[in-house]
């Protein structure tokens, strides 16, 4: 019964929302009687021709009858309708796809053809609950073929791949609006990272999609936007991205944490002159391992730990000199890597442990990327850039449906935000006004 109602309550924005509390008045004995009769007659509760489908049919037809009564101004067979100039004109059959499968309904008509149903609009073949189901499955990485097979197997509904693609294409408009929405004036931290997707553009190739995730002044997570790249992004590209964020209202960012993206520090300085750029320590370590033999990874990690846990920049330099003496001859590329990244590596050493803990890596955004990668991996590769962006956007929109993650974020960031308030001399106060 709940599934049946869910398809109705979302069918149109103008339809009153049916909440669980509204069902409390239903006679439990009547429900038991219906179920008992269905079982006695060998009628299935679910599936094709089942009780839920028949109840859905009657509920929809009753709602449609109520709508045409409101439209004409008189009840069926009411003498008051004589001479009004318009009247009922029979019904037409129509099959709609609902949460409980395909349901054939009789839609009433009027002689003037002026009746416009709302619960099941003209030419509407699916209740919006089905659209939401398709979008949810797509957000989890299922292909159009897999969604079609799922609907056929579970609901006995034949939905073509093209129809599924049309449903998911509806999110593109919402994605464009989301990508251009106004943002906060100040963000304590913005994490920028990339996930790689396979795009079939002539030939299948890896393409990065850059994700900018901020932490608000209240300690909440905010995905600022998505930008597709070609792998050769430089200062000009990042200047365009950051200028877009500024034009959407971001006047100040205290720190930007990233993975040594070429040209990004210069672009940050141009757009937000007071912003500190911090290299992700985790990525710096991972990149170091690329130049070392696997048998030495543990030893190198142990030797580098005193560098990034040093209490001051001066102490970090001493520890790094010791690392270079021990490993520089065998792995000079690792020493060069850290030398080149040093300016963006050391900023977090100047802050309290509360700030260090949350900004020394992009772990915060990595948890988001893990969800995105699951959806991307399930799809394999995409026909074009727009399809890839749509998949990533859907995955982001499906994050934290219960809201429990938001509470954990706020608790985790509360000490850090207090430290930011002190360390950055009240710049966060502008964002709280």
TrEMBL record:
Keywords: DNA recombination, DNA-binding, Transposable element, Transposition. Residues 70-80 have a biased composition (Basic and acidic residues). This is Mutator family transposase. InterPro entries: Transposase_mutator (IPR001207). Required for the transposition of the insertion element. The lineage of its organism: Bacteria, Bacillati, Actinomycetota, Actinomycetes, Pseudonocardiales. Belongs to the transposase mutator family. Residues 70-94 are annotated as: Disordered.
């Amino acid at each position: 019964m709940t599934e049946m109602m869910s398809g109705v309550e979302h069918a149109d924005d103008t339809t009153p929302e049916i909440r669980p509390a509204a069902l409390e008045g239903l006679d439990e004995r009547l429900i038991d009687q219906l179920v008992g009769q269905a079982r006695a007659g060998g009628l299935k509760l679910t599936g094709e021709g089942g009780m839920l489908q028949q109840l859905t049919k009657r509920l929809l037809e009753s709602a449609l009858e109520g709508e045409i009564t409101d439209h004409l101004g008189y009840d069926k067979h009411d003498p008051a309708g004589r001479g009004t100039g318009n009247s009922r004109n029979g019904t037409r059959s129509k099959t709609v796809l609902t949460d409980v499968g395909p349901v054939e309904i009789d839609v009433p008509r009027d002689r003037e053809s002026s009746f416009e149903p709302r619960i099941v609009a003209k030419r509407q073949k699916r209740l919006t609950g089905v659209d939401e189901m398709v979008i949810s499955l797509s957000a989890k990485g299922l292909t159009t073929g897999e969604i079609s097979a799922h609907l056929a197997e579970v609901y006995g509904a034949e939905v073509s791949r093209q129809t599924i693609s049309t449903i998911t294409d509806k999110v593109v408009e919402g994605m464009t609006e989301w990508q251009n929405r106004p943002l906060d004036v100040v963000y304590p931290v913005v994490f920028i990272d990339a996930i790689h997707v396979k795009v079939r553009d002539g030939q299948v190739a890896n393409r990065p999609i850059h994700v900018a995730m901020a932490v608000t002044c209240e300690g909440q997570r905010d995905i600022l936007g998505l930008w597709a790249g070609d792998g050769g992004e430089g200062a000009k590209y990042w200047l365009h991205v950051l200028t877009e964020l500024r034009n959407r209202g971001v006047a100040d960012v205290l720190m930007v944490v990233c993975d040594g993206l070429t040209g990004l520090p210069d672009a940050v300085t141009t757009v937000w002159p007071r912003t500190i750029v911090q290299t992700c320590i985790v990525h710096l370590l991972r990149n170091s391992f690329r130049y070392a033999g696997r048998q030495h990874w543990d030893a190198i990690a142990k030797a580098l730990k005193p560098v990034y846990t040093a209490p001051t920049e001066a102490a970090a330099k001493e520890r790094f000199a010791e690392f270079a003496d021990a490993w520089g001859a065998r792995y000079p590329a690792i020493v060069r890597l850290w030398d080149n990244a040093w300016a963006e590596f050391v900023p977090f050493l100047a802050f309290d442990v509360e700030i260090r803990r949350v900004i020394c890596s992009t772990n915060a955004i990595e948890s988001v990327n893990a969800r995105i990668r699951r959806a991307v991996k399930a799809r394999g590769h995409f026909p074009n850039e727009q399809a890839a962006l749509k998949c990533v956007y859907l995955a982001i929109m499906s994050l934290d449906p219960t809201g429990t993650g938001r509470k954990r974020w706020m608790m985790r960031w509360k000490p850090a935000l207090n430290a930011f308030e002190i360390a950055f001399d009240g710049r966060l106060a502008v964002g709280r006004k």
